[in-house]
Amino acid sequence: MFVNKRINYFFIVLGAAALILFATTLHKESFANSPPTLVINNQTIDYSPGPQIIEGRTLVPIRVISETLGADVVWDEQERTVSVKKEGRSVLLHIESHLVNYKEEGFDYDVIDVPPKIIESRTFVPLRLISNVLGADINWDGRTRTVEIESADRELSSFSDLSITSPWKNQTVVGKTSLKISDGGSLPAQAAEIRYLLLDPSTRKGVVIARGTDIKSAYEWLPETSLNGSHLLVAAVYNANGQVIAGDAINLTISVNPKAEIKGITNNQVFSQLPVTVQAGLSFSPKYVTYEFTNLDTKKTTQSREADPFGTYNWRPMADDNGRFSVTVTATDHDNKTYTSPEVYFELTLERNLALGGVRSGQAITGPVSLSATRNFEVSQTQYWKRNTATDEATMISQTGFGAHQWFPGPQEQGSYELYVRVLDTRLRPYTSDPVPVTVSGTPQLRIRGVGPDQVITGEITMTAQSNVPLQQVQFELLNPSDGSRKTIASGDAVDESFAWTPSSNDAGNRVIRVIGQRSGGNSLTSQEIPVTIYLGQLHSAKAIIEREKFKDFASELALESASKTGMSASLQTAQAILETGWGQSLPVDKYSGKFSRNLFGIKGSGPAGSVLSNTWEEYNGVAFRTDAHFRAYHNVNQSWDDHKNLLLLAARYEPFRAVMHDSSQGAWALRRSGYATDSLYPIKLMDIIRLYDLKKLDEVDF
Question: What is the pTM assigned to this prediction?
Answer without folding.
Answer: 0.85
